[in-house]
Fold these 2 entries.
Entry 1:
Amino acid sequence: KVGWYNAVLQPAFHLPYPDDTLAFVVLSTPSMFDKALKPFVKKEWLKIIRDPVDQCVSHHLSGVKEKFPDQKVDIIFDYEILPSRKPKFLAQTAAHVAGAAYYYQRKDVKLDPWGRKKIYGVCIHPKYGGWFAIRGLLLFPDIQVPFLQQSAPADCVSTEEKRTELLEQFNFHWQDGRYRDIIEVKERYSEEQKAYFATPPAERFRLLGLTRLTE
C-alpha cells in the first residue's frame, strides 16, 4: 500500500495517493538480460535513443499497463526525477516496505565504525543477494486495499558482523561487486551482463552492436 511507503518518509518524498492505494514494486532478476534485454535490442534497435535497459523496462511495463484497459495504471520508473532533482520515488525504501528486499542502512549496525563518513544503504534480496535491480512502481489509483497485510522483507544479513561488512563493501568497494555476494545466492549476473553494466553508459551501445543516436 502507498501508505506503508509514505509512513516511513518525510512529506517531501510522499507519493500523492491515498494510503490504501495498491502499488507494485517491479524488480529485474539476473535472467532479465538474456530473456528481456537482448531480444528487445535485437527487435527494436532502430528505436533505441537512450539507455537500452531503461527503454526495455519501459516497453515491458507499458505492455503490463495494456493488460488492464479498464483500470487507470500509473508507472514511475527508477530513473525519473522531479524538477527539484529529487527522484520521483525512493526505490530501496519501496522495495523494503513491499517486503521484496531488505534495505540495510547505517541504523541497522549498532557498533558504527564509520564516524563522520557518509554511509549509503543497500537492498539485499533473499534469493539474488545484490544481483538484482529495482526498476519501477506500478500504481493502481482506483484500487483501494484497506485489508492488505504488510509482509516484512527477509532479514537475510542478520548478524552485526555481516551487516558491517555489507555496508563497508557497498560504500567503499562497490566496483568489485563483492557486496552482491554477502549471502549465498541462487543466481547471479552472467559474465556478459557484468561486462555490460561495468561499461560506462555511453560505451554500452557498442557492446550491443548499436550506434549511438542523438536524442
Note: Helices lie at 2-7, 32-44, 52-66, 91-97, 160-172, 191-198, 201-207.
Entry 2:
Amino acid sequence: KIVSVVFVIFCVLPTTLTAVMQIDDWAEVDYSLSSLPAVFQQFIDLDLKGKVFPAGNYTDSPYMAASFTIPDQSDSMLYLAFSEYFFQTSSFAYYTTGAFNMTIAEETCSYFNINTEIFGSIIPEVIKYSVTPYPVMLKLMSTEIPIISLQQDSFTLEVQGSVEVLAVLPDSTTQSLFTLNIAANTSISLNIFDKKLMGSLCLNR
C-alpha cells in the first residue's frame, strides 16, 4: 500500500517540472525528472537529468545524453549511478565560467615559495631577463574543455592547458618570463578501502 501511494504522488508530478540546485559559485545542476518513475515490486527507479550548466546561464552543452543501465543487484537499499553525460556537462560548465583558470602567488598560497633564481637554474634564459631574484607568479589556464571518459573500472581525464610564469617586480608589476603548454592524459581509479573512498591516479602521457 505504501508503494502504491508513492506511485500516485509521483504520477501527479509533471515531468517538465524543473528542479535546479546551485552547486557552487560556478555551476548549477538540473536534476528534473526525465521520465515518470518506474515502480516495481521491490524497488523504485528514478531517472533524473543530471545536467550541469554555468551558474545563472542555462545554456545547451555540446554533449548528448546516452541511456545506460545499472547492473541488477539487490543487496543494498540505495544505488546511485552517474552517467558520462553528467561529468561531461560538469566539465563544460566549469570551463565556460573560467573555474579552471587560476593564479598562484606567494600571497595566496603559504606553500608557494619559488623565485626566478630557481627557474634560472633550470632554464638559463630566465637569468637574462631577471638577474636579481624576484618572486614568481603562475597563471594556470585551461585552453580546451577537459574530456572525461568513463571506463569499466576507472575513468580517463584529458586536459589541455597552459602555465604562464611571471616575475613579480619591486613595483608590484609583472613581467612574463615564459609559457608552458600542457597536454595530459590520466586514468583515475576509485576503490573503497577501510570504509573510505580512495582514488589512484596514473599519468598515461
Note: The CA atoms of residues 56 and 122 lie 44 Å apart.
